[in-house]
Amino acid sequence: MWEYSEKVIEHFLHPRNVGEVENPDGVGEVGSLACGDVLRISFKLDDQGRIADIRFKTFGCASAIASASALTELAKGKTLEEAEKITNRDIAENLGGLPDQKMHCSVLGREALEAAIYNYRTGRQAQRRLEGRVVCKCFGVTEKEIERVVRENRLTSVEEVTHYTKAGGACGQCHGDIAAIIEKVWKDIRAEEGGDRPMTLVQKIRLIEKVLDEEVRPALRMDGGDIELVDVRDNRVQVRLRGGCMGCPMAGITIKRVVEERLRRSVSPDIVVEAVQ
Questions:
Q1: Which of 17, 81, 108, 125 is the most exposed place for a label (fewest CB within 10 A)?
Q2: What global pTM score does this model have?
Q3: Catalytic residue, candidates 105, 136, 174, 245
Q4: Positive or negative, the Cα torsion across 250, 105, 40, 93?
Q5: Are residues 211 and 187 in the same domain?
Q6: Where is the domain boundary, 192, 211, 237?
Q7: Pair 11, 118 in one domain
Q8: Chain centroid to CA 277: how far?
Q9: 17 with 73: CB under 8 angstroms?
């Protein structure tokens, strides 16, 4: 059974903006019944070029419905340039997180919005373009698509790529290729972020504190919780949960899926987070 956040359940039971916009300016449809998820987005702009109305139809699971509902709420009122900057991480974080195995639903939402904007700008329906070599033949996922999702979400394992794209989720013959792509992307990221020179301990602590302050603490405070950095030893980070997070039965999940995941993305893929009393 999936562990859904309260916001996911709320958006699933009471989805926002369901349906089709009348005389839309842009329409985009992505997914396939063969893969299990299909999403259609339509929108209409106001006189200032902002999204005045946006609606969705989907064939999919609770996460697909919730992701599409959250996406429409995030996009409403934005210009197309602003809407294009919405990432699948924005969708998942707006929902208070998604189960790892359902992250592909947030990716589907981002792709549907991109397809609708493409339709507005060109007057043509966006066809899914198989850019580059097809790595996962079972689901038709290309090398370019895997590179993009690894880079945007700072993924570090084949399992994570499967959660985000479904690639490797059937026969498994492409696992070696996916691992090689992950390694290549991370080599490029490290080069872009200052080469292979390791951070000093002081630099690492400052970056960890920045991530905790900007990405973790605001999310915990929404539920009356907080977090304290206790110690950093190489890639082992010790933290202490405070406030409403203390004694919470979901504390272990918070440490791994919120704190550790964000630190791995922004600091180092090798970081391990431990909770101390």
A1: 81
A2: 0.66
A3: 105
A4: positive
A5: no
A6: 192
A7: yes
A8: 31
A9: yes
Range of the domain at 169: 134-192
Distance CA 149, CA 180 (A): 14
Q: Is 138 one of the annotated active-site residues of the chain?
A: no
Instruction: Write out the two tokens for 220.
Output: 């915990």
Active-site residue, from 35, 61, 138, 248: 35
User: Which residue in the block uniquely carries the two structure tokens 């059974």?
Assistant: 1
User: From the CB of residue 193, how many other CB atoms can be counted at a distance below 10 Å?
Assistant: 10
> Annotated catalytic, 136?
no
What is the residue whose two structure tokens read 């339509």? 42
**53-103 per-position pLDDT tens digit:** 999 999 888 999 999 999 999 999 999 999 999 999 899 989 988 888 889
183 & 208 share domain: no
pLDDT in tens, 175-232: 999 999 988 888 888 777 765 566 778 888 988 998 898 888 888 888 888 999 999 9
Q: Please say if the pLDDT value at position 109 is more than 80.
A: yes
Give the integer Cα–Cα distance in Å for 11 and 95: 8
Q: Is 201 helix (H, G, I), strand (E, B) or coil?
A: helix
What CATH number has the domain bearing residue 53? 3.90.1010.10
Number of domains making up the chain: 3
Tokens encoding 260: 């550790």
- Per the document, the length of the chain is 277
Indicate if 164 and 147 belong to the same structural domain: yes
